[in-house]
Design brief:
Layout lengths: L9 E4 L6 H31 L6 H29 L4 E4 H34 L4 H4 L2 H18 L1 H7 L9 E2 L6 H7 L5 H34 L4 H29 L11 H21 L3 H19 L1
Parallel strand pairs: 1-3
Antiparallel strand pairs: 1-2
Helix pairs in contact: 1-2, 1-10, 1-11, 2-3, 2-10, 3-5, 3-8, 3-9, 8-9, 9-10
Length: 314
């Protein structure tokens, strides 16, 4: 896959500057974020799989999104924690850097496909509730999820391949905690104008290809909710969409800032903070957004805890 034999054969991740005490604080903070995210999403996935009251399209997609969030936060965080634990720069080979970038981009693409599908599901549930089980049946949901996973991992093959066909002879110091595409393009001694333009068009296609159905779906959802006569009915209808809408705002905001710009190399200097938000903070927030704001998930979690306590007592 990687045919770049000119220039750097490995990179050094500069990570986070600062004193050793600050690095220890960051290490403890990110371990907490990582542990809570993995445990929260694992619990959500298990509950969705085993609880018969959560066998609906909404929770089917939520289960896949929870698995996806575990994969996303696991792309860069373990290596970043190892870099914070040890002094000095973190070395990463060219192949490992390519694999990390590919996983990061493909999982991000998959996330947008799932968020778009979840928006359409919320539209059907709110605007056509009587036909929800017919339109979003198990076969349709399985097809949508399968296509999303396949599309996510196939779509990012060429962008990563093209990125690592460049020669990196300026430097092998990556000013980030993982192999970000903007930083890699900045280190290349090739003319990257054309490839940056193609990558920009691909990013626009992925982001707006899923954002447009999301916007259209929520336009109809809001219009339908406003027509509900009772305030309690409007509140209940909106509560079914609030978690997904919050996740959309957090995820799209970061990725739009990172990738929908023609000159990615020029913006590489301030991408570290946004990458941190997308890679760690957003996955950390999602279990709380989808679990603590969802009465059915909370009820299923309570039932599961009660059953576990009953088994231990016996």
């Amino acid at each position: 896959m990687l045919g770049n034999y000119c220039g750097a054969t490995e990179f050094y991740l500069l990570g986070f500057p600062g004193s050793q005490e600050l690095r220890h604080v960051l290490l403890a903070t990110f371990i907490l974020f990582y542990s809570v995210t993995v445990m929260g999403d694992t619990v959500t996935t298990v509950i969705v799989c085993v609880d018969k009251h959560l066998q609906s399209p909404m929770y089917f997609f939520l289960g896949h999104l929870s698995v996806l969030e575990i994969l996303i936060i696991s792309v860069a965080v373990p290596l970043m924690l190892w870099g914070l634990l040890l002094p000095g720069m973190q070395a990463i080979s060219l192949i490992a850097c390519g694999v990390q970038l590919y996983r990061y981009l493909s999982l991000g693409t998959l996330e947008f496909a799932l968020l778009g599908a979840m928006a359409v599901d919320r539209y059907v549930a709110v605007c056509n509730p009587l036909r929800n089980n017919v339109i979003m049946n198990s076969r349709t949901c399985n097809i949508v999820v399968t296509v999303s996973w396949v599309f996510g991992f196939l779509f990012e093959i060429w962008p990563v391949y093209a990125t690592f066909q460049l020669s990196y002879c300026k430097s092998n110091m990556v000013n980030n905690f993982f192999c970000g595409r903007g930083q890699l393009l900045k280190l290349s001694c090739n003319d990257t104008l054309f490839i940056e333009f193609i990558l920009f068009l691909m990013a626009v296609f992925v982001l707006f290809g899923s954002l447009i159905p999301t916007i259209v779906s929520y336009t109809y959802i809001i219009s339908t909710i406003l027509k509900i006569p009772s305030a309690s009915g409007r509140r209940k209808a909106f509560s079914t969409c609030a978690s997904h809408f919050t996740c959309v705002v957090v995820s799209y905001g970061g990725y739009l800032f990172l990738y929908v710009k023609p000159k990615q190399a020029q913006a590489a200097n301030y991408n570290g903070v946004v990458s941190l938000m997308v890679s760690i903070v957003a996955p950390f927030l999602n279990p709380f957004v989808f679990t603590l704001r969802n009465d059915k998930v909370i009820e299923a979690l309570r039932d599961g805890v009660k059953r576990c306590c009953h088994l231990f007592r016996n």
